[in-house]
Amino acid sequence: MSVHVATEQLGELYCAMCESSFEGVTSCPRDGSRLVRLAPPHDPMIGRELDGRYTILEKLGSGGMGAVYRATQHSVSREVVIKVVHANLASDPEVIKRFLREAKLASQLSHPNTVAVLDFGQTPDGLFYLVMELITGRTLESVYLTDGRFDARRLVRLGVQLCDALEAAHALSIVHRDLKPANIMLLDNTRDSAKVLDFGLAKSLETDAAETTKSGAMCGTPAFIAPERACGQPCDHRSDLYSLGCILYLLGSGHLPFTAGSMHELLTMQVHQHAPPMTGVPLSLADVIDRLLLKDPAARWQTAAELRDALEEAVPLTMQMAPISRPHQIPSVPGGYETAPSLPLRPSANHIAGRRPPTASELQDFGAGATHDAAVVPHSRRRWWLAAAAAALIGAVTFAAVLSRDSAPPPAPLPVTTVAPPPDHEVPEVALPPLEVTPAAPVAPMRIKPRPPARPAAGKTKLPF
Q: Which end of the chain has less neighbouring CB within 10 Å, N or C?
């Protein structure tokens, strides 16, 4: 699938509520409204050449900024994506100045996790266009609706990539303004390699269009919008970090931080209500994401680089564990993390060999030298121990019988003979009397912070964005 979701070969699937196009669904994944299939209109752009350098092949979709097309670039014989700005926007000089300024900035943004802007310009008849690389993959929105919530490591892998993209853009003073799952692509045939779409440029033009039509100047999708942006206050790169927090919260917990029955109610919650503590991920990761959703921008993580470091510290993506000699060892869970929902939180006796190595703090709690569950003795060694114990017990009984036979002075001591354990296959099964073991002092239980149960994966849940 190409970089944009909708194709209009058979008619556009259109949502009247959010004024967006979709494919492969019958209802809007953002607000649940039933989609309407529009008859594909005749588009005079199909087959047209732009500046003698590009030929338009097909229409991929449309949005607030303009129409999106697949095209061929003649000079290098490659396919690209071209966005053509709506004529009503192109008639405003201030809008065009902003378009040219932000297109120039966006063309300087070169990063593996962003979609490259290759060219921009104006046709002789006044059409402004933006040329971008064509990539194949699925939007993060589509992946989430198919896969459900992400495990902690997958979530951090994605979060680190998005932080890298934001860091590169923010260094050029480019703010995305509308970061959401629909604007993030996961490339085909990769391990969740992500690219962020539409940095800054599209939303700035859509906002100008909103101001022109007097329908409001709010920029951003309500489910992911930062409080300061929802209020129309000045905002900066930290608004992008808030939106990223909403995305990570959704992917990790399986639900949005705020849900409401109307846009007004949702915006009110974004501005005034604190998000409930995140569930379904390790506490260390939940704390990092919860901080992103604080209302005061000064209280959040301040930069994408700072956030990336916190994510990697919360759930390290690469960890070297010291090898432990255990028969049939089961891979352990890294110290300090919660087990995955499919694993038991407390392993059974049959799986005690697979427990993770205790952390330093746990060793201090249990006391120095505690080895009550350090290893499982191999079968052959256990049989040798039983044989040695049996031999020692027989010798002790025999010696006691000799002493009790009479009280005469003992004869000269006999030479001591060392009894070697017989081979494993000759060891008789000996029933040993139970040993009297003095119980150890009780150990104070480890303090574990109670967590509410994780919500089930969203699966095909419809998203209000």
A: N
**CA atoms of 17 and 465, how far apart (whole Å):** 11
Lookup: tokens for 268: 């009110």
In order of 50, 57, 113, 127, the CA distances from 47 in angstroms are 10, 6, 31, 16
Contact 280, 254 (CB under 8 A): yes
- Of 174, 50, 193, 62, the residue nearest 109 (C-alpha): 174
- How many Å apart are CA 389 and CA 254, to the nearest integer? 57
Domains observed in the chain: 1-42 (no CATH), 45-134 (3.30.200.20), 137-321+454-465 (1.10.510.10)
Sheet holding 36-38, edge to edge: 20-22, 12-15, 36-38
Nearest alpha carbon to residue 18 among 29, 9, 8: 29
Tally Cβ neighbours within 10 Å of residue 159: 29
Q: Measure Cα distances from 323 to 160, 330, 356, 373 in Å.
A: 28, 12, 11, 16
Class of residue 343 by CB neighbours under 10 A (exposed 0-12, middle 13-18, buried 19+): exposed
Rounded to an integer, what distance in angstroms lies between the CA atom of residue 100 and that of residue 105? 9
What distance in Å separates the CA atoms of residue 280 and residue 129, rounded to the nearest whole number? Answer: 44
CA 159 to CA 156: how far, in whole Å?
5
Report angle CA 422, 424, 428 to the nearest 5 degrees.
Answer: 75
Name the catalytic one among 92, 125, 151, 178. Answer: 178
pLDDT (tens, 9 = 90+) of the chain, 465 residues, equals 334 433 444 567 888 888 888 876 778 888 778 888 776 667 888 999 998 899 999 998 877 778 899 999 999 999 999 999 888 887 888 888 888 887 888 888 889 999 999 999 998 888 899 999 999 899 999 999 999 999 999 999 999 999 999 999 999 888 888 899 999 999 988 888 999 987 755 454 444 444 433 333 445 688 999 999 888 888 899 999 999 999 999 999 999 999 888 889 899 999 999 999 988 899 999 999 999 999 999 999 999 999 999 999 998 876 443 333 333 333 333 333 333 343 333 233 333 333 343 343 333 333 333 333 333 334 444 445 555 566 666 665 555 554 455 545 555 554 544 444 444 444 444 444 443 444 444 444 444 444 444 444 444 444 545
Q: Which residues are registered as beta bridge partners of 432? A: none
341 CB contacts (<8 Å, ≥6 apart)?
Answer: 280, 454
| Catalytic residue check, 178 | yes
